[in-house]
C-alpha cells in the first residue's frame, strides 16, 4: 500500500492530517488502504503485534496445567480457553497484516526477543489455583483494556476486539467461579486460592501499563482514537470492579495501602513496584527465557507444517494454471 502512509515531510501532509483527524473526530473508522500518518501505522503495528504475541505466549502458563487439571470438566474448560487464545493471536496477526507488515516479520521480532509481549506471562503458574486466578485477574484486566480498544479508530483492530471480548468474558467468568469455589472450600483450597491472589494481584495491576506520567505514547494515541482511556483510568476501573469482589469472596489483597475512597467512589491502591515491572519487561522476569525458548522450539518443530502448506499451495496453483 505505498503512498498511503503520510510523513510530516510530505508536501500535502498537513492538509491530509487535518482531514484524517476530522474523520476520527466524527467517529469514522480508518480502514486498510486509507491515508494515515506513518506514526499512526507504526503505533498500531507495535500495539497489535504485541497484543498478538501476548495471546500466543499467554497459552504457555495455562497450557502447562492441561494435563494436571483436577477434573474432566475443568480440563475441557481449560483446553477451550487455551484454544481461544490461539484464535485471538490469529485475528490479531491478520489485523496487523492489513498495515503492510508480514507475519514472518512479526514472528521474527518475537523469536529474536526484539518484540515485547505482556509482562504478566513471564510469571510462573505454581499451583492449580493460578489457573482460576489468571482467568479472574489477567483476563479481567485484559477485558478492561480490550473493551476500550473495541472502540478504537482502526477498523480491523476494533472489530477483532469485539469478537475477542466475547470470549474473554467467558474466560473471566470461569476463573472467578473457580477462585470463589476454592475460597469457600477446604482450608487447603482456601490457602491455595489466597496464595495465588497474593502472587498475581500486583502483576495484574502492572500489566495495564506504566502510570500516565510515564507513558509518552498515550497523548498521541488518545488524540488519534487508538486509546480512548489512559492506563491509569483502565487500572482504576479494574481495581474498582475486582477489589470488592475478591474481599467479598473472603480473600485478602496484598496491598496494605488499599482503601475505598468515599469522596471519589474509587478503590485507592498503594505504590506499585515499577522496578519489578521494568525488570520483567526488559527480559529479567522469572520466566522470560523459558517462554521465548518454548516459542522458538514450537516454531522450529512446526517448520515442516509450513513447508507442506507452501508445497500444497504451489501445487494447487500449478493445477489451476494447467486447467
Ligand atoms: Fe485472549
Ligand atoms: Fe483470555
TrEMBL record:
What are the record keywords, sorted? Answer: Oxidoreductase
- Provide GO CC annotations from the record: cytosol
Is Heme given among the entry's keywords?
Answer: no
The keyword Chloroplast is annotated on this UniProt entry: no
GO BP, one annotated term: phenylacetate catabolic process
Protein EC: 1.14.13.149
Quote the Gene3D superfamilies the UniProt record gives. 1.20.1260.10
Annotated GO molecular function terms are: phenylacetyl-CoA 1,2-epoxidase activity
By its UniProt entry, which SUPFAM superfamilies does this protein fall under?
A: Ferritin-like
- The main enzyme category here is oxidoreductase
Q: What is this protein called?
A: 1,2-phenylacetyl-CoA epoxidase, subunit A
Give the organism, scientific name: Calidithermus terrae
The gene coding this protein: paaA
Amino acid at each position: 500500500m505505498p503512498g498511503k502512509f503520510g510523513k510530516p515531510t510530505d508536501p500535502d501532509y498537513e492538509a491530509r492530517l487535518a482531514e484524517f483527524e476530522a474523520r476520527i473526530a466524527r467517529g469514522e473508522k480508518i480502514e486498510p488502504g486509507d491515508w494515515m500518518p506513518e506514526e499512526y501505522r507504526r503505533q498500531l503495528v507495535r500495539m497489535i503485534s504485541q497484543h498478538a504475541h501476548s495471546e500466543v505466549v499467554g497459552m504457555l502458563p495455562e497450557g502447562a496445567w492441561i494435563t494436571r487439571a483436577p477434573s474432566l470438566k475443568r480440563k475441557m474448560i481449560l483446553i477451550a480457553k487455551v484454544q481461544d487464545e490461539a484464535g485471538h493471536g490469529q485475528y490479531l496477526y491478520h489485523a496487523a497484516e492489513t498495515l503492510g507488515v508480514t507475519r514472518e516479520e512479526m514472528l521474527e521480532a518475537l523469536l529474536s526477543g526484539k518484540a515485547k509481549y505482556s509482562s504478566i506471562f513471564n510469571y510462573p503458574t505454581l499451583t492449580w489455583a493460578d489457573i482460576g486466578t489468571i482467568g479472574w485477574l489477567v483476563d479481567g484486566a485484559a477485558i478492561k483494556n480490550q473493551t476500550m480498544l473495541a472502540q478504537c479508530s482502526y477498523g480491523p483492530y476494533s472489530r477483532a476486539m469485539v469478537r475477542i471480548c466475547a470470549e474473554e468474558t467467558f474466560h473471566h467468568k470461569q476463573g472467578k467461579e473457580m477462585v470463589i469455589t476454592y475460597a469457600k472450600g477446604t482450608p487447603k483450597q482456601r490457602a491455595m486460592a489466597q496464595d495465588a491472589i497474593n502472587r498475581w494481584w500486583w502483576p495484574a495491576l502492572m500489566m495495564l501499563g506504566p502510570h500516565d506520567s510515564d507513558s509518552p505514547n498515550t497523548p498521541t494515541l488518545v488524540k488519534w482514537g487508538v486509546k480512548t482511556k489512559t492506563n491509569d483510568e483502565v487500572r482504576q476501573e479494574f481495581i474498582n470492579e475486582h477489589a470488592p469482589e475478591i474481599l467479598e469472596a473472603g480473600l485478602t489483597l496484598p496491598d496494605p495501602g488499599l482503601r475505598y475512597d468515599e469522596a471519589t467512589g474509587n478503590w485507592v491502591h498503594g505504590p506499585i513496584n515499577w522496578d519489578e515491572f521494568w525488570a520483567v519487561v526488559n527480559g529479567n522476569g522469572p520466566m522470560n527465557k523459558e517462554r521465548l525458548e518454548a516459542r522458538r522450539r514450537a516454531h522450529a518443530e512446526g517448520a515442516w507444517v509450513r513447508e507442506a502448506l507452501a508445497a500444497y499451495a504451489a501445487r494447487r496453483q500449478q493445477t489451476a494454471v494447467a486447467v
